[in-house]
Amino acid sequence: MKNAIAIAKKELNIYFATPIAYVMFTLFVVIGSYFFLRLLGAYEQASLAYMRFQAPEMMSRLNFQDAIFRNLFGNLGVILIFIVPFLTMRLVAEEKRQKTIELLYTTPVTPGQIVWGKYLACLAILVIALALTLTYPLLVQFNAGDSNGVEWRSVLLGYGGLFLMGAAYMAIGLFISSLTESQVVAALITFVVLLMTWIIGWTAGEAEGWVRDFVTYLASVSHLDSFSKGTLDVKDVVYFLSIIVLGLFATNRAVEAHRWS
Amino acid sequence: MIEVSHLVKSYRDLKAVQDVTFKVEKGEIVGFLGPNGAGKTTTMRMITGVLPPTSGSVKVSGYDVFERPMEVKRRIGYLPETPPVYTDMTVRAYLRFVAEIKGVRRSQREGEVEKVATQTNCRQFIHRVIGNLSKGQRQRVGLAQALLNDPEVLILDEPTVGLDPAQIIEVRQLIKSLAGKHTIVLSTHILPEVVATCQRVLIISQGKVVADDTLEGLQRTHAGALTADGQAGPAPSLEEIFLKLTSA
User: Fold this and answer.
1) How buried is B233 (Cβ within 10 angstroms: 0-12 exposed, 13-18 middle, 19+ buried)?
2) CB nearest to A99's CB, from B48, B76, B84
3) Predicted interface score ipTM higher than 0.95
4) Where is B110: in which H helix or E strand?
5) What is the dihedral sign for C-alpha A112, A114, A116, A119?
6) Taking the CB of residue A160, how many other CB atoms lie within 10 A of it?
7) Percentage of chain A surpassing pLDDT 90?
8) CA angle at residue A182 from B145 to B97, to 5 degrees?
9) Cα–Cα distance for residue pair A186/A173, rounded to 1 Å
10) What's the gap in Å between the CA of B77 and the closest CA on chain A?
């Protein structure tokens, strides 16, 4: 574990010594804020309209969670698809290209520690990025006036879902980075794979029966949505955790196998 | 200290290293010579455990490199062909990181980093980002990294490449000063370097060991014919011996 933390610290050192981390935070927050403002505007319009037409039962159904945060988390999840490949692309690929992997192979560090260290570092970046977006529910909370405010339990569950989805994406990205020496190739393939986990959900509407259930289960965004609705289902947790475990295991094997090639 | 026995490495139809066997005793400095592509780097990578051999075995301090890799890695310092430096880190951050993964205790880490930086003359650029350093400076950072945690065995793949003449002399002196306490295998193309630093010479050609002796021993074996008045001919230089052995 000590070695894994040393490697994680090294990766974070590089993330923050280069523009990668800052660019990623900026993009995440800029695009996130755009979506947040759009959703907030729509919420405002809806509540004004209901008030004008004196529709109290509609008004009582309008809440921040469904109107703003559920959609916002969906959007942030999609932004992750575009950002994660650029965070994970260099993790192993660059070590191979620069031959620094030989340093790791000749010091008392196991492949498992290398993989864990790198994974922990990108998780830390994910946590920071998500923490920056906490400003949105806080803003709503402070300006909610005498209404019920933000349902924090549901919002935090949504964040839990986003974290798990980002972590699963990063496990995929880390694995793909361990298969190549080229950062560009790693980023492109990761992007396509992550995109597939999103767009496969679109075909679910056309399918029927078990195919429909299966395709829905495969789509990452549908699992995220269940979190952002404010529900905690073991099925969704298992989905993300199994991707993470599989990704890390495969990366470990790939790092080990690199020496034998 | 280092026992290499019947080491073979083949890539499909190419035999990079064929049945290499040699021993290095504790405290010795061995020069590893050979033309380009002779298998020097491949052999060194197998000794350090980076590359698994096709067959044969390597033991360092009595531990087999592939059965007890962790024991071996704790005892070895390795400078690969390309210095394994992270170009986005500063020299100090890099050396601290290597000290940490080599298991240097937190309380000693700073002192250890200072020590190797002084030994390799890296102190004046210790705060700079490695990507902005010259080739020779990076080479010295790579050497500093190998020296961290005072390893018993040092494997140096062309340690003086890219250095200017003054630095070459400094590094040679450094290597000489490490003799006795450390066991050192260094590869090089520069023959005078071997004469200046090494006690023993190992010449490898086309994946095979063609000579393994002290310099004097080699000169005796390959001494020229007797001159007309019955005196022994002039001792051949290492260049002559090298060319004779590797051209075959």
Assistant:
1) exposed
2) B84
3) no
4) helix B106-119
5) negative
6) 17
7) 62
8) 20
9) 7
10) 8
For residue A52, is pLDDT > 80?
A: yes
**Which of A72-81, A217-226, A229-238 tops mean pLDDT?**
A72-81
Q: Is B84 within 8 Å of A108 when comparing Cβ atoms?
A: no
What would the pLDDT profile of B83-123 be if each residue is shown by its tens digit?
A: 999 999 999 999 999 999 999 999 999 999 999 999 988 99
Q: CB of B86 within 8 Å of any CB in chain A?
A: yes
Q: What is the DSSP letter of B159?
A: T
Distance CA A205, CA A217 (A): 13
Q: In terms of CA atoms, which chain B residue is nearest residue A107? A: B73
Asked if A104 and B87 come within 8 Å (Cβ–Cβ), the reply is no
Q: Is the CB of residue A18 less than 8 Å away from at least one CB of chain B?
A: yes
Per-residue 3-state assignment (H helix, E strand, C coil) for chain A: CHHHHHHHHHHHHHHHHCCHHHHHHHHHHHHHHHHHHHHHHHHHHHHHHHHHCCCHHHHHHCCHHHHHHHHHHHHHHHHHHHHHHHHHCHHHHHHHHCCCHHHHHHCCCCHHHHHHHHHHHHHHHHHHHHHHCCHHHHHHHHHCCCCCCCCHHHHHHHHHHHHHHHHHHHHHHHHHHCCCCCHHHHHHHHHHHHHHHHHHHHHHHCCCHHHHHHHHHHCHHHHHHHHHCCCCCHHHHHHHHHHHHHHHHHHHHHHHHHCCC
pTM of the prediction?
0.90
Owner of token pair 């001159």:
B227
Q: Which residue has the tokens 């360092």?
A: B60
Half-sphere exposure of B225 (CA within 13 A, CB side): 2
Helix (H) or strand (E) run with residue B203 in it = strand B200-205
| Chain A touched by B93 (CB under 8 Å) | yes
Residue A18's closest chain B neighbor by CA? B88
Verify whether the Cβ–Cβ distance B51 to A259 is below 8 Å.
Answer: yes
- Domain definitions of chain A by residue range: 2-258
- Cα B54 to the chain's mean position, in Å? 22
What dihedral angle (degrees, nearest 10) is formed by the CA atoms of B100, B105, B111, B114? Answer: -10
d(CA A62, CA A55) in angstroms, rounded, equals 11
Q: Give CATH superfamily name and number for B2-82+151-247.
A: P-loop containing nucleotide triphosphate hydrolases (3.40.50.300)
* Interchain contact, A106 vs B101, CB within 8 Å: no
Sorted by where each begins, the domain ranges of chain B are 2-82+151-247
Return the residue matching tokens 């390959």.
B222
